[in-house]
Write a structure and sequence with these properties.
Elements lengths: L2 H12 L12 E6 L4 E5 L12 H11 L5 E7 L8 H10 L5 E5 L5 E5 H4 L11
Parallel strand pairs: 3-4
Antiparallel strand pairs: 1-2, 1-3, 4-5
Bound molecules: zinc ion.
Length: about 130
């Protein structure tokens, strides 16, 4: 899938964000190694601890449908925020450290980084073997 299409899907997902507390609308689209694409939006909760990021919603949708290998992740926010540390940690479970993550903003600016660049010295499943 093209980066433009993945961006469009992430931006679309952000419109479904449930973020009454932060007002931050985040959308994500993840592509699996076999070409399936899943969207996610951030979902906040009044307990705050129950809040989940857009990236993890998209990843959990993919995994729950049997797709456990991620190929690409796109994150859309108004200001182009990168994924948080917890989302990066979850990504290490289902992708290689070479996987590209793009984060884009409303103005169309984008940054693309490898997972291993964003989460240096990552704790991976290999540590538990
Ligand atoms: Zn996150």
């Amino acid at each position: 899938m093209s980066d433009k299409k993945l961006r469009d899907l992430a931006q679309e997902a952000s419109t479904r964000s449930y973020s009454p507390y932060s007002k931050a609308k985040v959308g994500s689209a993840v592509e699996t190694d076999d070409g399936h694409v899943y969207q996610g939006c951030n979902i906040e909760n009044s307990s705050f601890g129950g809040t989940v990021c857009a990236e993890r919603v998209a990843i959990w949708k993919a995994v729950s449908e049997g797709h456990k290998k991620l190929k690409k992740v796109y994150v859309y926010t108004i200001d182009g925020w990168p994924p948080c540390g917890m989302c990066l940690q979850v990504m290490t479970e289902f992708s290689s450290l070479d996987m590209e993550i793009t984060f884009g903003d409303k103005a169309g600016n984008e940054k693309t980084k490898k997972l291993g660049e964003l989460l240096t010295h990552a704790f991976t499943p290999d540590h538990l073997k």
